[in-house]
Amino acid sequence: MTKAAKASRNDKYYLLSLGCAKNTVDSESMAQILNTSGMRGVGDPEAAEVLIVNTCGFINAAKEESVEALRELVAIKRGDQMVIAAGCLSQRYGDTLVQEVPGLDGVIGTRRWMDIFDLITRLRERLHPAPLYHLPDEAKVVGLDERGVLRASLQGASAYLKIADGCRRPCAFCAIPRIKGTAVSRPLESIAAEAARLQALGVREVMLIAQDSTDYGYDLGMKDGLAHLLDAIVAAAPDIPWLRIMYAYPGYVTPRLIETMARHEQILPYLDIPLQHGHRETLKRMKRPAKVEWVYDTIGKLREAMPELAVRTTFIVGYPGESEEEFQGLLQMAGDLEFDRVGAFQYSYELGTPSAALPDHVDDAIKQERYERLMQLQSAISLKKNQALVGKTLDILVEGHGAGEDESGADTGDVISLGRSYRDAPEIDGYVLVEGELPVGEIVPVRVTGATTYDLIATVDSAAPLVIEAGRVYGAGMIDVSDLG
Predict the structure, then answer these.
(1) What pTM did the predictor assign?
(2) In the predicted model, what is the mean pLDDT of the chain?
(3) Is the C or the N end of the chain the one with fewer CB within 10 Å?
């Protein structure tokens, strides 16, 4: 490589983000800090001086993916490049990570991601090739020292907005408190201001995320903090059509929160509330809220306040000690409450978590069999709920286009628009498939004409007339149709 080529990449970085949406927000925040420090992001690691992987270390499969990504970058690293491991895996395994990935130059954890440029500066100035670590335990500064960056990740017309970090819950299967530290809420005023900035950018959907969104404000001395935050966001950004709540914790969906969701039209009648199981004894071993009656009562109150409510939950099957009777309790809850969306996972052994020390681990074959039984039950429920929407009108946020296919899978030459309704969070829920090319990034009313287990089929709703004026359409939202012919 020539000297000119080497010099040209000294101000460039390559950043690979792995894991969940919360990690993506941290990655984009680090990118903003690097950009304001005079660096520029590139998509080719060969063209960058600094190679960063924002890792995930939540479960073993994620750890393996992160380690492999780091090893690949170390393998191609040249003498004038550096590889930095950031994020959850770094925080969880600390200085032992270099034993699995020899050749790492730097390790920075989740609690001081805002110091990424400081670490790069130290790496540039180091006299010896030994790796440098930046892994402070203190997490309280998160939310107060974010270097003025927008704590959001934009995904087309949608954005994930982080409202807190860390977790104070004692769930026996989860390593997040060890990785992230205790729950730390961001200042309400900062979040509301960022929602206003997202509105100015034309964002149509904002998803509030945290490890536990319903714990927002506890550390700030607030009661019903999430409800207060929602009121503040609605006031600050009244023109954002969709606000979506992710990751609510059982037992903390309060009457005030329900009333707030029902009162504001902007707040989607959608709630993601990971329950993890449906039997009291299993929940007790999980160190989760074990009052099953609360779940039935609260779901009932939510549906009474918002009849169109879509509820998403997650369940773990095969938790240590889970008997057939306990699994039947899970099936009973899923059948009784008929959740709109269910994500099911087979229990994963995680070293260092309290559940790892539990006796009576469930055989893998039994886990698989129980997973299939749960998903068979839920598939029938999901299909029934989707079929009940046929003939109804839904607003969808258009995300992209694809090619139509016939029954054999051959391209028909037709264009299909891909969108999401209020019932569908990005990446984890279903889609609405619409005939024709609709404008990406806008909210459009469609009429549902068909249903599959997870997705809906629709056409543009002719019963909701759109007025075309000067190349724009005025209906559910104002959309640019100049490219539609």
Answers:
(1) 0.89
(2) 90
(3) C
